[in-house]
């Protein structure tokens, strides 16, 4: 059984705004949310859109809900900022100096340096 689009449709002005915001999106999470709603507006189902984006169909429903609660401003707000850094300010500064010096070719090397130098993982 496929989930429906739940009747989700933009009017002409909303669709234009969605496209404008998608073009301007610097955060891939916002870009994906806007793509999802534009595809729903084109008549794709929530299941189809979820498969295209590699997310659960529940995620698509959540994005529709965000839009309905606060339009584009709420949809384009990303509240997750990650966890606090385990490094002290001094260790973080030292790491940034190593990065600027070109000491690492990949994140694996940087992680190894952090483990060896700072004792953090």
**Percent of residues in helices:** 55-70%
Q: Give a count of the beta strands, DSSP E runs of length 2 or more.
A: 0
> What profile does the largest beta sheet have?
none
Order of helices and strands: HHHHHH
Number of helices: 6
Q: What is the domain total for the residues?
A: 2
Characterize the overall form.
elongated
Low-pLDDT runs of 5+ residues are 1-5
What is the distance, rounded to the nearest whole angstrom, between the alpha carbons of the first and last residues?
44 Å
Structural notes for this entry:
The chain is mostly helical and 121 residues long. The protein has two domains: 12-75; 89-118, no CATH class. Helices cover 64% and strands 0% of the residues. The protein contains six helices and no strands. The protein has helices at residues 12-24, 28-41, 46-53, 57-75, 89-100, 107-118. Helix 3 crosses helix 4 (57-75). The protein is elongated and about 55 Å long. The N and C termini lie far apart (44 Å). The model is unreliable at 1-5 (pLDDT under 50).
